Recover the amino acids of this structure.
């Protein structure tokens, strides 16, 4: 029988940081120093299980690990470290992971200082009433500027010099102090062990043999194996088949006590039934109220995914179905394009989420995909009343039937060295952004707030931001509702035929300029064809820009006798095989990259 | 009269065309990727006559063997190519022809490839009267294909052609002797061949008015001496140490030169009937046309390729190995390729595309993507009329790309 840890010996905490500030390294070091992982099992980014996470140095799924820590006060504490995704696409998941904690180590790279995600995550932590332990990392690097970073941290959290820890996760210096601070400063869980049980689902994972594995924090009461439970948002009933803690790796137990972090498997097969943020309670003695903060996240960014080979449609559907098992936020609905055939319109939380899904489809399922230009969800209010939800620009209703079009806006927070303030203002002006306010974190660093259309961010705002500030700016944003904009649909015609997959919704004011840039880019992306191909951009029936892809002048070998015939035929067959990555649009062959050509445009850019 | 023939599968039917490969050359040209053996000054070395004689024997043996193995009818065409067939000399050529003479139709076309240095008076006289029609005994000459490459000695030198006989004089001798059908073989895209120099060759051709012109773009095949020299030229551009290697003209210069010669010859009354071939009325090379129409043909001699029905095979390229196999009663086959229906249909299409020959749609519909066909027809690259597909002159310029386009995407299973 496992020894029950008293509530006041449990500490639930998470590490929050901007990307590359050393979160995974610190987690690795903590696991090592507490002996949670045997040295021979140690590998980098231990908590990041997916290959993609390791390769990209990012965390996509939350993970948790239980650590037994013998503190300097002679007591042994149960620490539950919850590793969270750090990206804006997964803000909701982060907020639920933080809701499962009482404390957060706010990790800042002393060579970089506070970044936009540091701020965003710090606010999330404050929103969830977490005790923040500010930590400066990478002090072993010569480029670290501890006093400057300290000042920024003070500005952000109000922490004093004595409260800010300075460490090197790489060398291990100061890591023990972090563990001590977690024990000393993080409050123990406050739940009521006798109340009807409640557990917060802060992430979930699909296992093909066992169904959905819910990552939970028990808030009140306790859960036992074989207990009958209910998921409060849906009323879905289930029986707990297995529960336990993360050691790391699932370690089955008989019971999860108040305040503990662990997992629950119920045999439910659908990850959408076990949503992040939902509350699990006892079926016979249900809690009166669910835990606060549950919401269903909605995709913000949409794109068409089409197999390059038409007959791979079923495979794509199967692959999406499998990914969806583990990703409740992923949305997909069949779509048919005149140009690209059958595919899916997919909804994502953001661009990173989109990238990850696409990459997994290609890598894990061996699919070759054409991705159309990502877009946001537009609301077209019709003159006859009613509203059309437009997730695919080609489906925008006729201009004369639209009363107004609304698009999603975000409030963006941009952190930047003060010398770039002018640059940012200039960039934002070209992106339909409204200035909100700005605040100096220190004489050298400024936090600027803008309200701008999400569509601008989806385009290439972040790249531009990075480029123009030599990588110093960081960005975070928060959805802030729909607003009306003067938008038009820009169509692209190849050889006189509209290509639905290339349609865009853009601000009227920049339609000519972007139309021009787009056809120029397409002309460059489309190789010479067997005949001349006009490339046109049009609004309605009005052509606003035109370019021409020239015809190949000669493409035939001089000799074809005897054995040449086999050689020639094989060569042509091979070339045909090579054309699979080209999409046939009417009479024109278009390489896949052309469908993303628009991403390479620079609306409003005035030189770099 | 293709219109009256019933469509039949490509390469099916009785054999009526024979190609004989003569694998000997004085010296190997720098661009040559054919099976050939350099034999120096043509018959002077002691073992060369024996080699030539053995070769003629071998062809006779192979012919007998193949004639028995296939449904071979009276031959409509016989083509002696190489290599350098004229290197054998009139006597041996006559012996070779004697082997086939009883098997030719009265109107059969017999072609011999000749190099200018071999086209002396004696040869010209033989060529003019070599073919006795079996019925009447009347004299009919062979068709000559004269290997000019370029009229400019420096461009021939750039190709590594060391013999410096004047092709113009050779042409005049053949004409004077009464050879009724003379074709010239030329090359464009030669390193150092400027548009002006090409214009000079075009002018000479128009002046001579040969009956037939084959004008090939230089193909720098991998592994040839020319390929090595051009690679060297690129590596040392601007600072060549020896004999200043010259790079080949740029792609667009070659393409422009090609269009120019097509235009000039067409204007002068030549029918541009294949990518690289032009003929005055009545002088199309019927042998090559038969191959391009996917008629079955036998190839004899070292390295020769045959295609009959669903099978294509290639002879051993080494004359000694080839002769030894035949002497031992074996076929000298080196490799065999089985052609399935789809492959044959694709070849039919790719060959027809090169000559603008009409093809019954039903013969190729299994391998043609209907959407691509419609698009290509809309763009004027092919015309489809009365169940027949024909690649237009415009389409011929891009025949390779067009075929890639027209072929149905390969279906990969599993």
């Amino acid at each position: 029988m496992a020894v029950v840890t008293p509530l006041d010996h449990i500490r639930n905490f998470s590490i929050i940081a901007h990307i590359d500030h050393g979160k995974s390294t610190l987690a690795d070091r903590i696991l090592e120093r507490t002996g949670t992982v045997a040295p021979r099992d140690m590998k980098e980014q231990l908590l990041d299980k997916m290959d993609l996470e390791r390769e990209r140095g990012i965390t996509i799924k939350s993970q948790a690990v239980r650590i037994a820590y013998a503190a300097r006060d002679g007591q042994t504490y149960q620490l539950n470290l919850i590793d969270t995704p750090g990206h804006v696409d997964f803000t909701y998941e982060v907020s639920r992971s933080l809701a499962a904690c009482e404390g957060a180590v706010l990790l800042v790279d002393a060579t970089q200082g506070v970044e936009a995600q540091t701020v965003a995550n710090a606010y999330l932590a404050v929103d969830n009433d977490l005790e923040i332990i500010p930590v400066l990392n990478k002090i072993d690097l010569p480029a670290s500027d501890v006093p400057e970073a300290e000042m920024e941290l003070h500005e952000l959290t109000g922490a004093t010099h004595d409260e800010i820890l300075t460490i090197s996760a790489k060398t291990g210096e100061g890591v023990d102090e972090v563990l001590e601070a977690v024990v000393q400063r993080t409050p123990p869980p406050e739940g009521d062990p006798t109340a009807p049980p409640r557990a917060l689902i802060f992430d979930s994972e699909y296992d093909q043999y066992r169904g959905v594995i819910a990552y939970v924090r028990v808030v009140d009461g306790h859960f036992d194996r074989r207990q009958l439970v209910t998921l409060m948002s849906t009323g879905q009933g289930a029986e707990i088949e297995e529960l336990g803690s993360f050691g790391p790796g699932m370690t089955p137990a008989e019971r999860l006590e108040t305040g503990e972090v662990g997992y629950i498997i119920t045999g439910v097969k659908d990850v959408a039934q076990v949503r992040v943020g939902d509350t699990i309670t006892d079926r016979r003695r249900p809690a009166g109220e669910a835990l606060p903060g549950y919401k269903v996240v909605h995709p913000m960014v949409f794109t068409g995914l089409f197999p390059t080979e038409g007959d791979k449609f079923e495979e794509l559907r199967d692959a999406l179905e499998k990914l969806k098992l583990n990703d409740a936020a992923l949305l997909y609905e069949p779509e048919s394009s005149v140009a690209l055939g059958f595919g899916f319109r997919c909804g994502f939380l953001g661009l990173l989420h989109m990238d990850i899904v696409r990459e997994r489809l290609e890598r894990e399922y061996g699919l070759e995909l054409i991705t159309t230009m990502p877009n946001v969800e537009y609301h077209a209010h019709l003159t006859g009343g009613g509203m059309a939800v437009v997730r695919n620009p080609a489906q925008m209703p006729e201009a004369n039937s639209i009363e107004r079009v609304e698009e999603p806006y975000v409030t963006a927070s941009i952190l930047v060295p003060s010398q770039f303030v002018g640059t940012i203002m200039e960039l934002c002006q070209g992106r339909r952004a409204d200035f909100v306010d700005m605040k100096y974190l220190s004489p050298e660093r400024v936090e600027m707030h803008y309200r701008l259309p999400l569509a601008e961010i989806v385009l290439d705002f972040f790249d531009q931001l990075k480029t123009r500030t030599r990588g110093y700016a960081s960005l975070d944003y928060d959805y802030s509702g729909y607003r009306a904009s003067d938008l038009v649909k820009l169509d692209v015609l190849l050889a006189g035929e509209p290509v639905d997959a290339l349609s865009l919704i853009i601000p009227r004011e920049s339609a000519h300029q972007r139309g021009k840039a787009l056809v120029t880019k397409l002309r460059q992306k489309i190789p010479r064809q067997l005949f001349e191909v006009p490339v046109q951009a049009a609004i309605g029936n009005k052509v606003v820009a035109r370019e021409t892809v020239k015809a190949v002048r000669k493409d035939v070998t001089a000799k074809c006798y005897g054995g040449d015939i086999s050689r020639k035929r094989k060569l042509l067959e091979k070339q045909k095989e090579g054309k699979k990555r080209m999409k046939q649009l009417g009479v024109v062959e278009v390489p896949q990259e052309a469908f993303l050509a628009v991403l390479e445009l620079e609306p409003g850019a005035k030189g770099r | 009269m293709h219109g009256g023939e019933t469509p039949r599968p490509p390469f099916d039917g009785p054999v009526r065309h024979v190609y004989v490969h003569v694998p000997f050359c004085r010296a190997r040209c720098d661009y040559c990727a054919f099976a050939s053996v350099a034999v120096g000054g043509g018959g002077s070395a002691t073992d060369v006559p024996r080699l030539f004689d053995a070769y003629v024997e071998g062809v006779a043996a192979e012919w007998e063997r193949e004639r028995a193995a296939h449904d071979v009818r009276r031959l409509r065409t016989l083509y002696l190519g190489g290599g350098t067939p004229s290197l054998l000399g009139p006597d041996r050529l006559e012996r070779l022809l004697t082997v086939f003479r009883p098997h030719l139709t009265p109107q059969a076309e017999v072609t011999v490839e000749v190099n200018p240095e071999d086209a002396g008076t004696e040869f010209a006289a033989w060529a003019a009267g070599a073919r006795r029609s079996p019925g009447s005994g009347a004299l009919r000459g062979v068709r000559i294909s004269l290997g000019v490459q370029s009229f400019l000695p420096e461009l021939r030198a750039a190709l590594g052609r060391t013999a410096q006989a004047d092709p113009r004089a050779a042409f005049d001798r053949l004409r004077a002797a009464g050879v009724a059908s003379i074709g010239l073989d030329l090359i464009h895209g030669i390193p150092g061949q400027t548009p002006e120099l090409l214009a000079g060759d075009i002018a000479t051709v128009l002046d001579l008015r040969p009956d037939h012109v084959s004008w090939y773009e230089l193909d720098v095949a991998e592994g040839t001496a020319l390929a090595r020299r051009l690679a060297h030229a690129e590596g040392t551009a601007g600072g060549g140490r020896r004999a200043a290697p010259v790079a080949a003209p740029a792609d667009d210069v070659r393409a422009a030169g090609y269009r120019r010669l097509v235009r000039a010859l067409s204007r002068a009354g030549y029918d541009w009937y294949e990518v690289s071939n032009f003929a005055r009325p009545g002088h199309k090379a019927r042998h090559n046309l038969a191959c391009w129409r996917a008629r079955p043909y036998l190839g004899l001699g070292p390295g020769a390729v045959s295609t009959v029905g669903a099978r294509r095979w290639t002879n051993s390229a080494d004359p000694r190995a080839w002769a030894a196999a035949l002497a031992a009663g074996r076929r000298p086959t080196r490799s065999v390729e089985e052609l399935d229906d789809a492959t044959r249909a694709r070849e039919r299409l790719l060959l027809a595309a090169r000559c603008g020959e009409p093809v019954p749609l039903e013969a190729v519909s299994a391998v043609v993507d209907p959407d691509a066909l419609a698009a290509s027809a809309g763009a004027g690259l092919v015309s489809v009329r009365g169940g027949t597909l024909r690649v237009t002159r415009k389409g011929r310029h891009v025949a390779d790309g067009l075929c890639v386009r027209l072929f149905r995407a390969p279906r990969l299973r599993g």
Observations:
- The longest helix of chain B spans residues 47-69.
